[in-house]
Amino acid sequence: MKRLTIAAIIAVMAAGVFTGCGSAGSQTTPVENQSSQSGQESGAQSNAQNDTQNTAQNNNGGNQDIGEDAALQAALDAAGVSESDISRLQVSQDRDDGRLTYDVRFDVGQKEYDYEILASDGQILGSDVEQNNGGGQNTDNSGAAVSREDAIATALAKVPGATENDIRIELERDDGRMTYEGNIIYEQMEYEFEIDADTGEILSWSEERP
């Protein structure tokens, strides 16, 4: 009888142990689920960060700059001329629809060239060629006390190194007064002037770098 009683007690204890283990096993499931969810969230955050970094890198790539020299070379290649052939060179940086660009301008003989260059890869975005019709210089200075040649010499004297290839000048008549108006573009600087055609006096002078 005692043996049966002891056996019954052992059976009850064993059942309790198995029940406890079952409960413990069922309680670990939410923890495992939480761990899985945490891993998924971490992966999603990592992917989002990677996407952001890739976008930033792409944006930076759009702002790459080949530099003024390469932009000038791209324009010269498009025009089919060499740097030794040009005068009145201007290269300026600008932005077009958020893109970094270069505006390259120069003269070759009696032609004016204007190119818009994409700074990231040197692509030609736009171009324009104009004929100067005698260099934009009015040679008819009849009635002026000061000759065109003298007016040119007066203007060039203020820009050491500049030559007649760098200047554009015209005789203007306004309300009976005659003046020489024009500009000099030399070493990336633009000089605009107005000279009295009767006295040779410089009436106005300005300097600007593009």
Structure description:
This protein is of the alpha+beta class and 210 residues long. Helix content is 39%, strand content 33%. A hairpin with a 5-residue loop joins strand 7 (189-196) and strand 8.
Task: Indicate the radius of gyration in whole angstroms.
Answer: 41 Å
The helix/strand order is HHEEEEHEEEE
Beta-strand level of the residues, as a percent range? 25-35%
What is the total tally of β strands? Answer: 8
Instruction: Give me the number of helical elements.
Output: 3
Low-confidence spans: 17-29, 52-61
Q: Compute the average pLDDT.
A: 80
Strand order of the largest sheet: 1-2-3-4
- Given the C-alpha coordinates, what overall shape results? elongated
Helix content: 25-40%
* Distance, first to last CA: 114 Å
**Major sheet, described briefly?**
4 strands, antiparallel
Helix/strand/pairing category: alpha+beta
Task: List descriptors.
210 residues, alpha+beta, 4-stranded antiparallel β-sheet, 3 helices, 8 strands, elongated
Strands, helices and their partners?
Blueprint: H1 2-62, H2 68-79, E1 87-96, E2 99-108, E3 111-118, E4 124-131, H3 148-156, E5 167-174, E6 177-186, E7 189-196, E8 202-208
What is this structure, in a nutshell?
The relative contact order is 0.09. The protein has helices at 2-62, 68-79, 148-156, and strands at residues 87-96, 99-108, 111-118, 124-131, 167-174, 177-186, 189-196, 202-208. The chain is α+β, with helices and mostly antiparallel strands and 210 residues long.
